[in-house]
């Protein structure tokens, strides 16, 4: 009899809805919309998409408001990319930090189709003084640190905004983007943590100054010190990282042969290798990369482990990329708990 059980989302918060992908049970390259992790700062927005228009203004030569039909008629671009919440694995920081205690599932991968942001800006032109491009979403609410209402807004430096793979997406895995993931239009910024990929785009503004919105200047900033802002710097590119999907942590196994498996990803180049240790980091062996590394995408890996002795074992994985970065033994602690990318660890018992 076929097993009809299916994985389900792991809830971290209900309002706003924040749920993890059941990453340990996902074997597909593309994750469907129902199992794509959900990260929200506010309740879902209310707007009528039937009359959707996208204004592009600011320090541009020809301000323009695009209809959805116009955008759908522009030359398309499709990008397969992993999106990772900057708070992914926050729950593993020591000492603990405040915020949703994400484990390993605030990460998903899919295929996004849309139009390059660059294409829209070519229609409007940009002034020579332009420094950044603000993308504002329809989601808004009151921040606890200021008791003020804010829309979720982020900016990109001009060079990142004009990269051809920075796209305004309208399809996910060949279908319209699900509402909970940004329908009808979502910004997709490959290589960066997903806070940059603004959902439910409301407007685009080109500016000639540094954007200081709270989701840019307060949140999504690394604060290395607990009691001061000294040494702070912005959260941008994803760090080299890996996750052990199987076996699960604290699982009981029999002696014999087991296939260890997982994923690895980076925001800087390509994953070049994944290594596995089954003795707590004393010895390391190369895992097999199941698929050819692609820019922006996860690599699946596996390792054949034959265990003959009973006892407790610490299994670890670490990845390296073409930029020369390797997963560190310990993640860089920071006050808001962003960018955790320490060597992954699970512990099992063999009986």
Overall, the morphology is globular
List the strand order in the largest sheet: 4-3-12-7-8
Helix content: under 10%
Main β-sheet: number of strands, strand sense, barrel status? 5 strands, mixed
Secondary-structure element string: EEEEHEEHEEHEEEEHEEEEEEEEEEE
The average pLDDT value, as a whole number, equals 96
CATH superfamily of the largest domain: Oxidoreductase, molybdopterin-binding domain
How big a fraction of the residues is strand? 35-45%
Sheet/helix structural class: mainly beta
Q: What does the radius of gyration come to?
A: 21 Å
Main CATH class of the largest domain? Alpha Beta
The total of beta strands comes to 23
CATH fold topology of the largest domain:
Sulfite Oxidase, Chain A, domain 2
Which blocks of ≥5 consecutive residues have pLDDT under 50? Answer: none
Number of helices: 4
Query: How many structural domains does the protein architecture include?
Result: 2
**Second CATH tier, the architecture of the largest domain:** Alpha-Beta Complex
């Amino acid at each position: 009899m076929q097993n009809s059980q299916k994985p389900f989302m792991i809830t971290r918060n209900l309002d706003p809805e924040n749920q993890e992908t059941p990453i340990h049970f996902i074997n597909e390259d593309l994750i469907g919309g129902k199992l794509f992790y959900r990260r929200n700062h506010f309740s879902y927005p209310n707007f009528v998409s039937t009359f959707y228009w996208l204004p592009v203004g600011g320090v541009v030569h020809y301000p323009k408001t695009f209809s959805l039909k116009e955008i759908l008629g522009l030359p398309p671009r499709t990008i397969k990319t992993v999106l990772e919440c900057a708070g992914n694995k926050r729950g593993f920081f020591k000492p603990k930090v405040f915020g949703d205690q994400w484990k390993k599932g605030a990460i998903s991968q899919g295929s996004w189709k849309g139009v390059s942001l660059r294409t829209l800006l070519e229609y409007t032109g940009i002034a020579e003084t332009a420094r950044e491009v603000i993308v504002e979403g329809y989601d808004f609410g009151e921040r606890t640190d200021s008791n003020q209402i804010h829309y979720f807004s982020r900016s990109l430096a001009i060079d990142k905004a004009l990269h051809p793979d920075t796209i305004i997406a309208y399809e996910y895995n060949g279908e319209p983007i699900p509402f909970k993931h940004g329908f009808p239009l979502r910004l997709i910024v490959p290589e960066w943590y997903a806070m940059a990929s603004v959902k439910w785009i409301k407007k685009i503004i080109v500016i000639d100054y540094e954007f200081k919105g709270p989701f840019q200047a307060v949140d999504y900033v690394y604060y290395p010190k607990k009691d001061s802002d000294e040494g702070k710097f912005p959260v941008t590119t994803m760090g080299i990282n890996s996750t052990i999907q199987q076996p699960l942590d604290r699982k009981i196994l029999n002696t014999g042969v087991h296939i260890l498996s997982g994923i690895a990803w980076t925001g800087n180049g390509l994953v070049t290798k994944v290594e596995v240790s089954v003795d707590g980091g004393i010895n390391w062996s190369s895992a097999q990369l199941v698929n050819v590394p692609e820019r922006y995408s996860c690599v699946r890996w596996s390792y054949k482990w034959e265990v003959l002795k009973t006892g407790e074992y610490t299994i670890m994985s670490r990845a390296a990329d073409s930029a020369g970065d390797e997963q560190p033994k310990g993640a860089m602690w920071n006050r808001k708990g962003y960018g955790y990318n320490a060597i992954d660890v699970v512990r099992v018992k063999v009986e």
